[in-house]
């Protein structure tokens, strides 16, 4: 099992499949909160749904609207199950807080290079541990 240690910023525990991006994600213009889908045309996850998965990504890009768009995913029932990111910015942290999903940041190793989309991941934001449960 592969386990990373980070800092939990939104408490809770969640487990599910990972959706991994090596690119930052934009809220305003980058996601469709009603469908929970990445809509930024040049993004590597274009067209993929982040609803009910552990979203693993470097951090947020774009304006302060990021938090509002991710809050909308919570209100519309399309939010990710949990979030793991390393680049801590006010917009990303606020987005995690208003989305109200377990979130771990600043891991001791880069999760975007170690995790693969589809890995079963457990995010324990109470302890700051992120574990790949099906690592080979």
Automatic annotation (TrEMBL):
Pfam families: AcnX_swivel_put. The keyword Cell membrane does not apply. One of its GO terms (molecular function) is lyase activity. Residues 25-104 form the Phosphomevalonate dehydratase small subunit-like domain. InterPro entries: PMDh-S-like_dom. Keywords: Lyase. It comes from the Bacteria. This is DUF126 domain-containing protein. It comes from Phytoactinopolyspora mesophila.
